[in-house]
Amino acid sequence: MYFGWDCIMLKISKDTPISEITLRRYEKPSNLNKRELVRKLCLSSGLLQPGDSRDIIVDILHVLLDARKENQQLNSERVRDLVIELRKQHGLPLHGVASSNIRRQIKRLRDLFLVEKVRNSYRITEFDDVSVIFREKIEQYMLASMLDRVREYYKKIDDEFS
Q1: Alpha-carbon span 4 to 18, nearest angstrom
Q2: Nearest to 134, CA basis, from 115, 119, 151, 147
Q3: 117 neighbors 110 (Cβ within 8 angstroms)
Q4: Do residues 78 and 55 make contact, with C-beta atoms less than 8 angstroms apart?
């Protein structure tokens, strides 16, 4: 009887990260329309995968950025209505506009601190510039703590394997 590695199923504990972030580097932003600019931000921040046609998050962020100009908070249904309108303007299919998906995508924006919930409405965090949000919330808070933890693993490896 053969008991090779392909026959043995070992139980490996599920490694669930406390937090995670994906960052990608693209060319400098120039000569892009607003939607394409938001799309590149979503790609750069890991909110959208390269080649992904399911890009409703781009329009959700776009709508919330537009609302920020007027210091408007939007409930999820208003976000949905504005996203549908925006996608029609750009001749895009209305895939992913279900209310549940809109709320799920807003949650992803909240997890990255770009959007916050105030009562039952959403807005760009404190109506602030996204560059400030990135610097204060993502770079100084999320990224710094992640880098510290990764450094701990590198140090522990050095200690254990020396």
Answers
A1: 35
A2: 115
A3: yes
A4: no
Please state, in angstroms and rounded to a whole number, the distance separating the CA atoms of residues 95 and 54.
7
- Residue 14 pLDDT grade (very low, low, confident, very high; cuts 50, 70, 90): confident
Strands, DSSP E only, in the chain? 115-118, 121-124
Q: In terms of Cα–Cα distance, which of 11, 16, 36 is closest to 26?
A: 36
pLDDT at 1: 46
Task: Dihedral sign for Cα 109, 114, 117, 122, please.
Answer: negative
> What residues contact residue 130 under an 8 Å CB cut-off, 6+ apart?
41, 65, 114, 124
**Cβ(64)–Cβ(79) under 8 Å?**
yes
Which whole number is the average pLDDT over 116-138?
97
Q: Which two tokens stand for residue 19?
A: 């937090």
C-alpha–C-alpha distance, residues 112 and 146, integer Å: 14
Q: Which long-range contacts (CB under 8 A, 24 or more apart) does 84-93 make?
A: 86/35, 86/59, 86/62, 87/59, 90/35, 92/59
Cα separation, 121 vs 132, whole angstroms: 21
